[in-house]
Amino acid sequence: MTAGLTRTALDLGDPWDAGNPLGYPEVLAADAAGEPFTAGEELLRSAGLQRHFVPASLGGELRGADQFARTMRAVFSRDAGLGVGFGATSFIAAVPVWTAGSPHQRRTVADVLLDGGRCAAAFTEWDHGADFGRADVRARPAGDGWRISGAKHLINNVARADLVTLFARTDDRPGSRSHSNLLVDMRGRPGTHYRLLPRYRTSGMRGCLLGGIDFTDAPVPAGAVIGEPGDALETVFRAFQITRCVLPGMVIGILDSQLRLAVRYAQGRRLYGQAVADLPHTREVLGGAFVDLLIADCLATVGARALHVLPAEGSVLSAAVKYLVPKLLHEAGYELSTLLGASYYLADGEHAAFGKHARDLPVAVLAHASSAVCLSTIIPQLPRLARRGWAATDTAPPPATLFRPGDVLAELDPARLAVNNRGVDTLTATLRAERDRADTDPGVRRHADAFCAELAALGERAGALAPRDQTVMAGRDSFVLAHRYSVVLAAAACVGVWRRHPEDPFLGDPAWLVTALQRLRVRLDRATRPMWTAAGPVPATVDDELSRRYRHNLWFDLTSTPISLDRSAP
Question: pTM value?
Answer without folding.
Answer: 0.95
